Design the sequence.
């Protein structure tokens, strides 16, 4: 199932970059997993490796219309899809008062 999704994602990447030339294309599937890689001449690229347990590590990248290099790496395993990128939103820092309250609660557990 995931392999079909991955092939569709690669096809979408190529379609979105219809004027780009393919510089490198690798699609290897074997008994213990797979490896795929697509590199286009416009800076777009995608690669992933996976094992028989469904664990996948990958990365995709492109150059935005503003000229910024965008890179997203990810892991997909029993803990779900876990993307990482400087451009992904992150939660704000925990306020100091909350950190102090948590430390107090941990230092003074309930006697129940």
Sequence:
């Amino acid at each position: 199932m995931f392999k079909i999704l991955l092939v569709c994602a690669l096809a979408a990447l190529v379609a979105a970059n219809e004027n780009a030339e393919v510089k490198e294309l690798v699609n290897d599937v074997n008994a213990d997993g797979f490896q795929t890689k697509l590199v286009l001449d416009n800076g777009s690229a995608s690669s992933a490796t996976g094992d028989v347990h469904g664990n996948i590590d990958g990365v995709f990248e492109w150059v935005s219309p503003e000229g910024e290099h965008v890179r997203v790496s990810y892991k997909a395993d029993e803990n779900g899809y876990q993307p990482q990128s400087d451009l992904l939103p992150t939660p704000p820092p925990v306020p100091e008062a909350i950190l102090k309250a948590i430390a107090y609660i941990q230092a003074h557990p309930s006697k129940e």
